[in-house]
Design a protein that fits this description.
With 120 residues, the protein is α+β, with helices and mostly antiparallel strands. It has two helices and eight strands.
Length: 120
């Protein structure tokens, strides 16, 4: 009985940790959603991604430990970011911008706020 209880607790702990780590994963598509646009700006997969900035699509690497992007072709290639609950904030163009991760509550809330459907 004691061994079964210990196994059950370890299993639940592993599930909980996996669920938490997936929520904080940067992998996905990020949209700039405001009254003027609903545009995909960033795509991240693992430690690589792309960003549409300065009128071009640029490759970047992701450092989750330092919370930075290294963007190719930028004069100052290191861009810091913050990520929480589906909202990514970064300064690619001279001012902090907010990007919403597709499939999160934050993304859905932004679409609703600015009267976009998920099909736009």
């Amino acid at each position: 009985m004691k061994r079964l209880l210990t196994t059950l607790i370890l299993g639940l702990t592993a599930l909980f940790l996996a669920a938490c780590s997936n929520q904080n994963s940067l992998d996905g598509e990020y949209y700039e959603i405001d009254e003027y646009s609903n545009d995909k700006i960033i795509v991240i997969k693992g430690d690589e991604g792309t960003v549409v900035a300065e009128a071009a699509t640029r490759n970047m690497t992701v450092d989750t430990d330092l919370q930075t992007f290294e963007v190719s072709g930028f004069v100052n290639p290191t861009v810091t970011y913050e990520y929480k609950d589906g909202v990514l904030t970064a300064n690619f163009t001279g001012s902090d911008e907010t990007y919403y991760k597709k499939g999160t509550n934050a993304y859905e809330d932004a679409l609703e706020k600015y009267d976009y459907s998920d099909d736009n």
